[in-house]
Fold:
Amino acid sequence: MNLFEREIEFELSNWDVNILLRLERLVGKKVEPDEHLIRFVITKSHGNRFHGELGILAGYTEGGSSTSVFDFRKRAFGQQDKFNVVLMIPTGIGAEQGGHSGDGGALARFVAGACDTLITHPNVVNASDINELPENALYVEGSVLSRFLMGTVGLQKVRANRILVIIGEHEEEYFTQSAINSVGAAFVTLGISCPEIVVLSDATRKMEMITTFSSSGRAAGVVQNFDILCDILTSRQDAFDAVAIASQIQTDHRFREGYFFDGALNPWGGVEAMLTHAISLLFNVPSAHAPMTESKEILVNFDVGVVEPRKSAEAVSVSNFHCVLKGLQRSPRIVPFHDNNLRSDVITAEDVSCLVLPDRCLGLPTLAALEQGIPVIAVKENENIMANDLTTLPWKEGQLYIVENYWEAIGVLNALKSGVAPHAVRRPLSPIQISYHADDRKTFRANQKIRHGKIE
Structure:
């Protein structure tokens, strides 16, 4: 089984009618019978023409979950007791904030101060050996966050997870030992529960992860022999609650140099997201991945010097693994939605008060929020390579707020939390639309004629 990306061009008009169902049918025509769609994003749109990028799992025929990424359940209401915010910064799009090495961590803490519960994903807070997840935040894998907003799963807080650790054996034993030592360190400092460390040691057949880039410039990749991982998870399904993986990612050296020295995209996050999307979708467990340094030569001789702060966490780490272990320790349990299986401690789409994301990002979370009636705050300052105009979507009045920066986003969040229309505290005031209606059609026609200056 292999994971890879496929690009498609399509046309779509009239966003108002059954958009998710129509997208599912349209995209389904681009997926073969032995393939499973694990990821969908629109990277560029103009008028009714769109460029889409699909994450595909090929060769998966049995076991796991048959869930479609387009499955949708309309939420029945929006609860008002708590103010819960989803903070998303999609992986692999070169986001100015959150597109490097956990450089969305301070932002997560900033947003967490404006809400009761913050729900975010590894790309925002994973900083190699550092993870400063706020106390009131939930660490949720990206595809699970999409399904959560689509209304098909709930999230249940846990005291602790049993973390199954899988390590791809490195050609240089030093790096395998470093990953194992990271688990030991997390055991004694965090108190994690790790029932087993599985080292993938078959030199003749390895799971391989390879960095690629799409035509849009988005970081993607290929995962070969993914079935090795599936076999391990299937045989141990009752023995763990979350999966932490450390393995090499084959990356052209020029991509690494471009990232550290030329401001290029982080080349590792895209293929990592493909891997964890597939695991979480098929096995309904939280998962996260950490990339191993490829050789001691790179570790010693690739002298990055003093780097800009957004990349410094990677410059001071060897295993990059502690952030994953800390995040997964309390990552919430994934609860497939059924009307008769939800308890009061399960958070669902009904409990989401707002979605905050970089401007121009158009994927399943954005579309889910649109369909669910969840307010969306899109931040312009968080520049990225996506090329979409979110204002062209059929938002309800007061559902989409385009703001300049995250300072302004917090202002909008506090207004929504207070029940204040955000535009009521801006000057000049926005005009209030006035329309006239009369039950008597003759009166209405007369008004229209007077209004247009056509008095008979």
